[in-house]
Structure formats: C-alpha cells, structure tokens
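User: Here's a structure from my thesis project, written as structure tokens. My advisor, Dr. K., wants to see whether a designed sequence matches the one we expressed. Can you design one independently, without my sequence as a hint?
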C-alpha cells in the first residue's frame, strides 16, 4: 500500500485558481488605475461624457477589487 503524501488534483486546482485570481485582480486594479487616469485627463480637456465613462469604468473596477478581497477573506476564514 502506497501512501499519498501530496494530493496532486487538489494541489493543481489550488494553483490554477490562485493564478486566475491573481491575474484577474491585477487586471481589474490596472483597469481602475487606467479609468482614474483617463478621468483626470479627459476632465482637463473638457470632454465630460468620456471622462464620466472612464470614471465609471475605474470605479467599477476598484469596486470589483474590493469585492474580490472581501470574498477572499470570507473564504479563508471559513476553511
């Protein structure tokens, strides 16, 4: 009888989910920074509609990052 020291299926799932979450949250954060920067730049050039759209994109992205952090904390504390 051979004992299993490492559950490879669970380890692989952990690696894939962690990589996906890391890339996804990083992308969302960069989208938030882009939206904030575009909002400031477009506001200075009196393009209010485009500035508002970019600001909304940035705000939604930062909100999604915050939600991802909250979900991660909840998942970690329940396991």
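Assistant: Designed independently from the structure alone:
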């Amino acid at each position: 009888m051979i004992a299993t020291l490492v559950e490879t299926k669970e380890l692989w799932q952990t690696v894939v989910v962690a990589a996906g979450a890391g890339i996804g949250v990083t992308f969302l954060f960069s989208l938030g920074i882009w939206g904030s920067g575009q909002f400031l730049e477009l506001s200075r050039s009196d393009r209010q509609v485009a500035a508002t759209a970019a600001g909304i994109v940035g705000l939604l992205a930062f909100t999604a990052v915050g939600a991802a952090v909250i979900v991660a904390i909840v998942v970690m504390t329940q396991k």
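When you compare it with your expressed construct, this may help: The mean pLDDT is 91.
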